[in-house]
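[step 3/7] fold_predict: job queued, chain A
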Amino acid sequence: MKLQIIQDSQGKATGVYIPIKEWNELKKEFKVLESLEYEEPSKEQILDELKEALIELKLVEQCKMKARPIQNLLDEL
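[step 4/7] structure written:
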């Protein structure tokens, strides 16, 4: 396996690059790795999340729900 170490400006290792061919072989051997890959959300998923956020905002405005700290929102992004 030909891994490449990714380093920051101080030379500290921050990540590893695995060639896609080898990544695909690892996924075949270790099925759990598939769950680590990022999938773009669909337009429907994004719209559903926006609708949920608007509902929560209305509840906060009506004092029926407590607002969360802004840091929690930023952490979700």
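[step 5/7] annotate
Residues 43-76 form one domain.
DSSP finds three helices and two strands in the chain.
exit 0
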